[in-house]
Amino acid sequence: MRVAHRNRSLVSSTLHFHSLSPCSLQFPRTLTLTVGRRTAGKDVRRLSMADGENVSTAAPAENGSAMDPTISTDEDEKFGFKRAEMYQSTLSGTVAPYDRHVFLCYKSPDAWLPRVEASEDDPLPKLLDSALKARKGDISNKTRLTICEACEGNEGDVLIFPEMIKCKSLKGSDVDGFVDDVLVNGNPWASGVQEALTGSYVFVCAHTSRDKRCGVCGPVLIDRLKEGIESRGLKDQLFVKACSHVGGHKYAGNLIIFSPDSLGKTVGHWYGYVTPDDVPEILDQHIGEGKIIERLWRGQMGVAAEEDKRTGEQPVPNAEISSKSDKYEERNTEVNKDNKGACCQGVTGFSCCKDESLEVRKEKKLNEKTEVCGKKGLGKLSSWIGSLEQGDVLAACAVVGAVGTVAVAYSLYKRSG
């Protein structure tokens, strides 16, 4: 029996039963231990031990964190919530971009090998992982596979986000058909049972054989989350599961929350450096109010890492991220607003400033022509000619020349007569 939190301490004693503990005591008589409060969702009970059985002593860890009786205080500070690396790294942008998350319900965290998806001893995870890699080029959505704990009766179930579907009791012989139907073609699973998922899901990394930090932090967070869910009456709406390696063990405790946004779309948000003290905020602020807890936020499914860094200050976890094109359009809108006051067509949003500048250049050229004509003594006529287009000037010159020619010819004709 493990005391996970200070508020769940034993009333009559702080003794823990652990047969393999190096710090054990021999009791000559039967010992009866009364647990005065509810611990980790279990009913109050009386425990008794026969003569000669071992009882290990361990005090509750501080700040709500738990310490296994086999782990020393030094190890707790190295792997638990008090380790020196906590809060030393920037979290935002530490999630590699991906579009879909597939969870295979398989055994328990204690049974998972370090590389459970590649283990010869675990054929189902390996078959599914191999099939996903083989069909990678055919799957349009970048898909991530993670193992999660199986509860009684759901061994082999596959949970898929953001599609929010569950494919029940996957077997090794069904893997290729499942991948082809559901993940490649986006169709219902032809040879199996498929149903919709409802509610929100929290997956907590507790892969102890892969990294001891998650093995220490994960179970404590799961206990605290389940307590908070029960106290808030959310047992039928919010579900918590232990999961295998998700990346970034140095950020333990790590958890992923899949919940619907204001539009009903399921979004997956990653959190790191989560401690038991953060659990009420996770439940009330993120899940209850739909707001990101910025200091713990690592990123989200469906968004590139670069955009994750810009999204860290979103007031809500599923707020729309402005793209470069959106910002470009905003800048153009501001420019158009400035132009509307000075443009002849501004009220319609159309700017004629470019055309207007062409007219100004034409007018300048004509004025230059007028000045030149004035210097030559052409006076008003020259100014008038200068204001005409080049074609008009040439036509006028031709007419004047023709009239002059006729006049000269007529004068010569009169003289010869």
Automatic annotation (TrEMBL):
**Matches recorded under CDD domains:** TRX_Fd_Sucrase
Ranges for region Disordered: 49-73, 305-329
The record's keywords, sorted A to Z, are:
Membrane, Transmembrane, Transmembrane helix
Top-rank taxon: Eukaryota
**InterPro entries per record:** Aim32/Apd1-like, Thioredoxin-like_sf
Residue spans crossing the bilayer: 393-413
Ranges in a coiled coil: none
Tell me which Gene3D superfamilies the record gives: Glutaredoxin
Protein name per Swiss-Prot or TrEMBL:
Uncharacterized protein
